[in-house]
């Protein structure tokens, strides 16, 4: 496959990033005095396309890598539009030149002939910039004229073959530059120069725009023009000679002075194109050769006009000696801050040229070359200087143009900036070289006032935008509790593409070294792993895994989800409904009576004692902050409802204990406290004080008001409040975005509102679980009783760091989560132990898809049924892919409450076992302490207590650990098992064999399930 040139790659990337557009169209418009022979002209266009391979090339991609596909015999046609007297030919031409190209499918050349009134005509050759540049226009027109003349004479054009084709140049360019990592390569040498030249350069040129920079530019543009007199032109030529400079250098010095006067600061970067045709063999070739240079100017210390020109000359000569380095390689290596709306390194472009003779011929016809108005802008500001000369060769004036982005600038502002440039050029022409910039008269008082006014207005607008569209800070590599598995897959794909061990949910792709080529690879892998259409622009607009997941979810085809927002108390219903998860626990409580089964105790031996009065006040602060902690759950006519109490004092029992046995009994008693949910709030605390002055803190939340994630929120808020109360003040925290009652109302609308998702998700689950066995056929030590007794015990186990690392590597390579890898291993184990090949494994999901729910205490978790097919003795990696495919479907339909699923599917119901799933799996991410955070006042060691029993037959829970350097430190596992069904020996056998299966999968992920037996060595470990 033939690679693209670096310049082409940039345009291919932009075409992928922004979609097909006219922003990079390069139209050639010929206004002819007579209509050409249509058949001869069509033949001539075909001849030119046949002569230049680049005009019959499309740009396809494999695994995100673009390549040139040269079409052998393309179907090239000349379209003809007959224009009547009522047609506006100019409008038709404008509409044609603004038609977009998709360079992955379309040939980069279109030809259309507009026959105008009488015998005149307009020929338009519309070429995409990926196949042409300004130099190429002359080559294209010369070849077309020769071919047309020949075809009118009934013969083929008799031109000499081109010495090379563009594809040859693309290959030569890479060979000439070499590997940037090779110290002896030209690329490395020139990169070394540019790293120094651009070190510390401003990311953006600060100018008085009328509007803040949009996240997504429209590329709409407009043009303002001016003219510099012949006298000034002649004087500028003399200034340039006196300083051994070129007209371009003089113009750039003037432009930088003008931008500095407009508020750009003392360090101004301007871009400019260079031809990029170092070899004579390239001179007759149509193609995209131009490169962009980022040229810096130093305006510090108020230099005079001559000094600034000398500084510019020195910089420009050095830059042009290093102009071979493609701009894209420079961006990839220096990796500046990236966004769709900000061109890297420079946003202002300067081009100088000699005004060309616009007359042309096409066979016997003559005409003029016309400039088409594309109304586009590739940069914020593009200044153009076209020098004109008289018949005697003397300077005749300079045509000035400014193409500006209308996203940012109004015409009045653009005209002001062009006026400043004109004044700066005039200052160089008329004032002594020793005139300081501050005295060059670039700004009038009214200009200064207008610029200051625009700067102030822009600053206020940007501050408002930042306040409403604030970005989350970088989150490091930490995973949030029970993160969405799709986010974890995205994090793995980010890490794989970037060559990193781990990527955090809020880590920016570009700050970690990502660039355009890698972004293409990333989107390609996302499409394969998640089955969603991810585009490169999505990565630019949402460059972190967490933001990208939200963006992809928002672009889905499902129902529009209602917004989650706070509901004022006056607008809430008189009786607030329970959430679906709460209703399940309320129903269990009615069925079984009050119990401690659904308590969530947090028991900690504190490192530093707390002062009871301050701690009591802090508890009250937290209860005021979280409505759910001051809610009672009552019923009327058999229907439960929430009642949020305006004021509630949480109970803090301070208890003095004796020896270890007395302490253990006190902890067990606290953990086993039975709440009366209809009469008391679901939160209380104990402070157990031992004889030596140490303290054990017990926080107890009923599951109806909390979950595992909630404990972190609760502890963080309690720590914050206690610190404040210890200093004699109230805690100064930000209000919560929503309360749990708002969530319950939102959930009811989400499920059963006008656009509710319940029907669609239920349909998914009916299909996904159709025919699944109601009970896992796993052998037990004793027959199942008429109903579970709830008693349970624990069997711990560990997985080595080496296996942990290998499992993570397997997950990344297969585009899955660590949970999915462990699920596949557990399924293999269950099948081997007689559970069959159609397995239901349950897991819990956090249920906090909206960021507003992240800081909330509340009961959000839901149970998912993950059906796993182990039939056919698949390889382990094949089983992992099966798990991923079914798992992603399940996670995409996780809003439907488990109880509603059970109710509608009506599985075989038995009081002896749980419906749908009897084996649960949980994999928890490692907690990562923030090294910069202040240690918590509630730090301490967890204290063991007697658990409430087993809620399922088997619950496998694994928690990742990390080493001192943050590397994978192994998995700490525990099996909670129902003692009515299993003996301790059986439980120990199951966890040992699960650990062995994980070792075997890690050692050989391609092994068949039948080969995943005992006795395999763990990666880097001894024989089992």
Provide tags for this entry.
1024 residues; elongated; Chloramphenicol Acetyltransferase; alpha+beta; disordered C terminus; 27 helices; 37% helix; six-stranded mixed beta sheet; five-stranded mixed beta sheet
Secondary structure layout plus pairing:
Elements: H1 6-18, E1 25-32, H2 38-51, E2 57-62, E3 65-70, E4 78-82, H3 89-97, E5 109-115, E6 121-128, H4 134-152, H5 166-177, H6 186-197, E7 221-228, H7 230-242, H8 247-264, E8 267-274, E9 291-298, H9 305-320, H10 327-334, E10 348-354, E11 359-362, E12 365-370, E13 381-389, E14 395-405, H11 411-430, H12 445-468, H13 485-498, H14 516-530, H15 536-541, H16 545-554, H17 580-592, E15 599-606, H18 612-625, E16 631-636, E17 639-644, E18 651-656, H19 660-671, E19 683-689, E20 695-702, H20 708-726, H21 740-752, H22 758-768, E21 792-799, H23 801-813, H24 818-832, E22 838-845, E23 862-869, H25 876-892, H26 898-905, E24 919-924, E25 940-942, E26 954-962, E27 968-978, H27 984-1003
Helix pairs in contact: 2-4, 7-11, 8-9, 8-11, 13-14, 13-16, 18-20, 23-24, 23-27, 24-25, 24-27
């Amino acid at each position: 496959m033939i690679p693209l040139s670096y310049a082409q790659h940039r345009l291919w990337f932009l075409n992928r990033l922004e979609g097909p557009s006219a922003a990079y169209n390069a139209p050639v418009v010929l206004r002819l005095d007579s209509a050409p022979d249509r058949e001869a002209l069509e033949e001539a266009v075909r001849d030119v396309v046949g002569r230049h391979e680049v005009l019959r090339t499309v740009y396809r991609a494999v695994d995100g890598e673009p390549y040139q596909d040269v079409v052998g015999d393309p179907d090239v046609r000349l379209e003809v539009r007959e224009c009547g007297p009522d047609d506006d030919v100019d409008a038709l031409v404008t509409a044609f030149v603004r038609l977009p190209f998709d360079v992955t499918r379309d040939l980069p050349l279109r030809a259309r002939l507009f026959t105008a009134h009488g015998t005149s005509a307009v020929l338009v050759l519309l070429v995409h910039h990926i196949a042409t540049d300004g130099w190429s226009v002359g080559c294209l027109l010369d070849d077309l004229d020769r071919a047309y003349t020949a075809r009118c004479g009934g013969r083929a054009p008799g031109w000499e073959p081109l010495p090379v084709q563009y594809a040859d140049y693309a290959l030569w360019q890479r060979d000439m530059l070499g590997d940037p990592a090779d110290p002896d390569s030209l690329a490395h040498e020139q990169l070394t120069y540019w790293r120094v030249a651009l070190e510390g350069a401003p990311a953006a040129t600060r100018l008085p725009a009328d509007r803040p920079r949009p996240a997504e530019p429209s590329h709409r543009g407009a043009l303002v023009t001016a003219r510099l007199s012949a006298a000034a032109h002649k004087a500028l030529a003399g200034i340039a000679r006196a300083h051994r400079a070129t007209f371009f250098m003089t113009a750039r010095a003037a432009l930088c002075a003008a931008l500095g006067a407009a508020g750009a600061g003392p360090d101004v970067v301007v871009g400019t194109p260079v031809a990029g045709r170092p070899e004579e063999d390239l001179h007759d070739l149509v193609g995209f050769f131009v490169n962009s240079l980022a040229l810096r100017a130093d305006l510090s210390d108020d230099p005079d006009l001559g000094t600034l020109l000398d500084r510019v000359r020195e910089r420009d000569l050095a830059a042009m000696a290093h102009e071979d380095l493609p701009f894209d390689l420079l961006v990839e290596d220096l990796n500046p801050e990236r966004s769709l709306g900000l061109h890297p390194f420079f946003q202002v472009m300067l081009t100088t040229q000699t005004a060309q003779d616009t007359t042309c011929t096409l066979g016997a016809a003559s005409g003029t070359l016309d400039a088409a108005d594309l109304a586009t802008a590739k940069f914020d500001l593009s200044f153009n200087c076209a020098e004109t000369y008289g018949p005697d060769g003397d300077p005749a004036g300079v045509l000035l143009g400014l193409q500006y982005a209308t996203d940012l600038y109004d015409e009045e502002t653009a005209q002001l900036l062009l006026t400043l440039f004109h004044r700066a050029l005039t200052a160089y022409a008329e004032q002594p070289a020793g005139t300081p910039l501050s005295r060059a008269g670039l700004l009038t008082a009214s200009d200064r006032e207008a610029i200051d006014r625009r700067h102030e207005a822009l600053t206020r607008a940007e501050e408002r935008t930042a306040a409403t569209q604030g970005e989350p800070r970088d989150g490091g590599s930490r995973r949030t509790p029970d993160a969405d598995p799709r986010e974890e897959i995205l994090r793995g794909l980010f890490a794989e593409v970037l060559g990193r061990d781990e990527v955090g949910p809020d880590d920016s792709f570009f700050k970690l070294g990502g660039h355009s080529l890698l972004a293409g690879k990333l989107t390609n892998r996302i499409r394969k792993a998640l089955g969603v259409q991810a585009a490169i622009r999505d990565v630019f607009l949402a460059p972190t895994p967490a933001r990208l997941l939200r963006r992809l979810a928002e672009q889905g085809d499902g129902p529009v989800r209602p917004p989650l927002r706070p509901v004022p108390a006056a607008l809430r219903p008189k009786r607030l409904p329970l959430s679906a998860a709460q209703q399940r626990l309320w129903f269990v409580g009615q069925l079984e009576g009050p119990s401690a089964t659904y308590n969530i105790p947090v028991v900690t031996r504190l490192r530093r004692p707390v002062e009871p009065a301050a701690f009591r006040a802090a508890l009250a602060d937290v209860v005021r902050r979280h409505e759910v902690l001051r809610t009672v759950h009552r019923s009327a006519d058999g229907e439960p409802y929430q009642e949020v109490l305006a004021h509630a004092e949480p109970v803090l029992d301070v208890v003095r204990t004796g020896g270890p046995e007395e302490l253990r009994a006190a902890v067990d008693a606290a953990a086993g406290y039975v709440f009366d949910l209809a009469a008391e709030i679901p939160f209380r605390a104990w402070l157990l004080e031992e004889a030596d002055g140490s303290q054990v803190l017990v926080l107890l939340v009923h599951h109806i008001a909390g979950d595992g994630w909630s404990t972190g929120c609760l502890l963080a808020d309690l720590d914050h409040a206690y610190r404040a109360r210890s200093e004699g003040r109230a805690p100064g925290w930000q209000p919560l975005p929503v309360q749990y009652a708002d969530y319950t109302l939102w959930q009811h609308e989400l499920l059963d509102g006008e656009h509710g998702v319940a029907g669609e998700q239920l349909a998914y689950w009916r299909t996904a679980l159709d025919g699944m066995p109601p009970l896992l056929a796993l052998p037990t030590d004793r027959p199942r009783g008429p109903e579970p007794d709830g008693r349970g015990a624990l069997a711990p186990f560990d997985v080595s760091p080496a296996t942990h690392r290998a499992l993570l590597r397997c997950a990344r390579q297969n585009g899955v989560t660590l949970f999915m890898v462990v699920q596949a291993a557990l399924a293999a184990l269950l099948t081997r132990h007689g559970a069959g090949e159609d397995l239901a494994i349950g897991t819990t999901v956090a249920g906090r898809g909206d960021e507003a729910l992240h800081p909330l205490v509340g009961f959000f978790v839901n149970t998912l049924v993950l059906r796993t097919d182990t039939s056919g003795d698949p390889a382990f990696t094949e089983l992992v892919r099966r798990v991923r495919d079914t798992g992603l479907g399940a996670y995409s339909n996780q809003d439907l409450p488990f109880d509603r699923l059970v109710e509608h599917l009506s599985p075989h119901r038995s009081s002896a076992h749980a419906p749908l799933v009897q084996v649960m799996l949980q994999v928890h991410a490692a907690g990562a302490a923030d090294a910069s955070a202040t240690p918590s006042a509630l730090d301490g060691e967890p204290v063991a207590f007697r658990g409430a029993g087993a809620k399922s037959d088997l619950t496998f829970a694994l928690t990742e650990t990390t080493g001192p350097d943050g590397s994978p430190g192994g998995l700490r596992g525990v099996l909670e098992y129902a003692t009515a069904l299993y003996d301790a020996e059986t439980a120990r056998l199951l966890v040992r064999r699960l650990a062995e299966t994980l070792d075997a999968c890690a050692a050989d992920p391609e092994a068949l399930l039948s080969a995943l037996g005992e006795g395999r060595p763990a990666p880097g470990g001894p024989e089992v």
